[in-house]
Amino acid sequence: MKGPLFYSKILLFGEYGIIKDSKGLSIPYNFYNGALKVSDTDTEVTKKSNNNLKRFADYLETIDSQLVRFDVEALRSDLAEGMYFDSSIPQGYGVGSSGALVAAIYDKYAFNKITVLENLTREKLLKLKAIFSEMESFFHGKSSGLDPLNSYLSIPILINSKDNIEATGIPSQKVDGKGAVFLLDSGVVGETAPMVRIFMENMKQEGFRSMLKDQFIKHTDACVDDFLKGDVKSLFKNTKQLSKVVLNHFKPMIPKQFHDLWKKGLETNDYYLKLCGSGGGGYILGFTENIEKAKESLKDYKLEVVYNF
């Protein structure tokens, strides 16, 4: 048995902001993927995944059946056969490892599932997001449900606000374009829950709340609009501002050894860095108007280009 592939995702804009109704833009990233499999041989990895899934199966039974019902019997029987989630998606890197798993389980075991082939109205997208939010909370504490949604549908998702999301198209890439979005490997695994706790703690301060609204969300929304319009010039202007705000107000989410690198990008304009997911480690997202320059500037690091302008 081998299930269909579910891909990783990248939230280009909107990390943290979408908790407070900023815009967001999430795109599938096909470089990494995962699928449900039954293996003939037991390894540490397959056993660990199988045990995790058994706990997940128990959790799925606690979800309100008005929202979604699963064929838990079939799931348990497959797990008894040794089913596990075979994934190349790095965990704790902000590219949606648990999202792909949630999408795979929903796809295979949910009753009356909403599929990609039907007309995806806003109601259906919100219902899927609500289901995925409940499912993914098992892994993160509190989840928006966006990662699994992206992985499940495998199309870019535009978040206008909490209750307003839509499937969207993004400008097609210029293969030989000098500008690029890239991933920078921090070499450290990030944990979502502690980062979200720090953010929620900060939200209790009025100064932080007004910075979020007047600066962070303002620039995030502008970046999303610029990206979708293909206005590269304005996009880089706004990304620079966003990068600055993150360096000044989200320091705990940036691994210490990257503070200077972050600053250097802002001073030289060779690249601008931002959080990829909740931060604390994993990938850092970079934007540059000249990828050769950025590679030179970051020559000690591993860059993965995900989009060309």
What does this structure look like?
The protein is built from ten helices and nine strands. It starts with 5 loop residues before the first strand and ends with a strand. The longest helix has 24 residues, at 206-229. It has helices at 44-60, 72-80, 97-109, 122-140, 146-153, 192-202, 206-229, 232-249, 259-268, 291-297, and strands at 6-13, 24-38, 83-87, 157-161, 164-167, 180-185, 272-275, 283-288, 303-308. Helix content is 44%, strand content 19%. Strands 1, 2, 3, 4 and 5 form a five-stranded antiparallel β-sheet that branches.
Radius of gyration: 19 Å
- The amount of helix comes to 40-55%
- Uncertain residue ranges: none
Strand segment tally: 9
Labels describing this entry:
Alpha-Beta Plaits, Ribosomal Protein S5, domain 2, 5-stranded antiparallel beta sheet, 309 residues, 4-stranded antiparallel beta sheet, single chain, alpha+beta
Question: What's the structural blueprint in terms of helices and strands?
Answer:
Blueprint: E1 6-13, E2 24-38, H1 44-60, H2 72-80, E3 83-87, H3 97-109, H4 122-140, H5 146-153, E4 157-161, E5 164-167, E6 180-185, H6 192-202, H7 206-229, H8 232-249, H9 259-268, E7 272-275, E8 283-288, H10 291-297, E9 303-308
Antiparallel strand pairs: 1-2, 2-3, 2-4, 4-5, 6-8, 6-9, 7-8
Helix pairs in contact: 1-2, 3-4, 3-5, 4-5, 7-8, 8-9
